[in-house]
What does this fold into?
Amino acid sequence: MPEIRPYREADLEDLYRICLSTGDAGADASHLYADPKILGHVFVAPYGVLSPRTAFVAEDAEGVGGYILGALDTHAFEAMAEARWWPKIRRLYADPGPVPEEGWSRDQLIAWVIHHPRKTSRRIADPFPSHVHIDLLPRLQGRGLGRRMLDLGFETLRAMGSTGVHLGVASANARAIRFYRAYGLIEPPAPQGVLWFARGFESSDETVGPPQPIGSGPHHPGR
It folds into this structure.
């Protein structure tokens, strides 16, 4: 039975590996990037380094095969990353240009994000100030782990005082979209090409238990 446990510093390389293995709308992205770590520099490593209290991994006999990573305050996390994470990563990659151009490689597009990290809109971060990222390798999908990990991530953030949490998913990631809808998350308006999912917590002062869904929706085992 896979175990969900708190993240440890020794898990960092596993975060990079899983991020790349799920980086193409949930599928393996190894063939898309010349640098196997560049994707993880953006989407996973900052959480392991800067926010380990809100990071958990799923581990089975084959090793770590999934994670849920989060930040209590999205804008504070972005400011901390600007001060403590991006400067050292920018030394590894040249800025490919002021704006993305047609024909850039995947590595160039991610290098541009490293030099010009996106700021989360207040439209989503004000009502739902926390955020999470979750990925599972195929061998751990369809076993209820996704739901258990979201439960744990949400409960952890709520216990720390969060009033709401959001996550983003590429519109091409149909499996993840089905999962989040089945889990019962709401769908605030989002930019083109991305879907936002969210859950509000009625009161961070209440006794922490399994979070209740906002709105209606079926509940099925997680991915």
User: Anything to note?
Assistant: Confidence is low (pLDDT under 50) at residues 204-223. Residues 145-159 form the longest helix (15 residues). The chain is about 35% helix and 20% strand.
